[in-house]
Specification:
This protein is mostly helical and about 180 residues long. About 70% of the residues lie in helices and about 10% in strands. It is built from six helices and three strands, in the order ααααααβββ. It has a three-stranded antiparallel beta sheet with strand order 1-2-3, with no helix packed on it. The longest helix has about 35 residues, at about 45-80.
């Protein structure tokens, strides 16, 4: 790894984190002011509002990470042009693709991180978000649905099973195979 690569990766990580945090912070502040009447209507406590936004954070991250990532690329490229680093590298005979190789490398690593957040963290956080929204913010008791309707199930072979309804105890009605 060249000195240039370490330099770009170091600053790219810094500006990526800075821009992602800044964009998420701005989004959540705007979202808070939009939902302020909602929180006032339900007389939500400060802690329940914090929990609401904490559990919404993975979804917000997945929504705004690309924006922060692109901003970081623009910041680094602008700094490189301003400090004539970009011109010096091109004048030194380094290809444009080689100049942007640290960006591509970090993009692949960040895609792995985003996949992990989307696959493991976001579904659990969304469940907690919905629970917090109903139980802590709106102060409602959740009704658990014990009966599911119109269920299709494909067997190992070409068999398809249809249940008009199926409850939590395993009772079914109008089963078609």
């Amino acid at each position: 790894m060249r000195v240039y690569d370490r330099y770009v990766i170091k600053w790219f990580i810094f500006y990526s984190l800075l821009s992602v945090v800044a964009v998420i912070f701005l989004y959540d502040i705007i979202n808070l002011f939009e939902h302020l009447s909602y929180f006032i209507h339900y007389k939500s406590s400060f802690v329940s509002i914090l929990l609401y936004y904490f559990y919404d954070l993975p979804a917000t991250f997945l929504l705004l990470y690309p924006v922060g990532f692109v901003l970081a690329v623009f910041f680094i490229t602008t700094i490189m042009v301003k400090e004539n680093t970009f011109s010096a590298l091109v004048a030194g005979g380094i290809n444009y693709i080689r100049i942007y190789m640290p960006f591509i490398f970090f993009t692949v690593i960040s895609l792995i991180i985003v996949y992990f957040v989307e696959d493991k963290v976001a579904p659990r956080a969304y469940t907690s978000f919905i629970k917090t929204k109903y139980e802590k913010v709106e102060r409602k008791t959740r009704v658990v649905n014990t009966r599911n309707y119109n269920i299709y199930f494909a067997g190992n072979d070409t068999t398809v099973y249809y249940f008009q309804w199926l409850d939590a105890n395993g009772k079914a009605e109008n089963v078609i195979i």
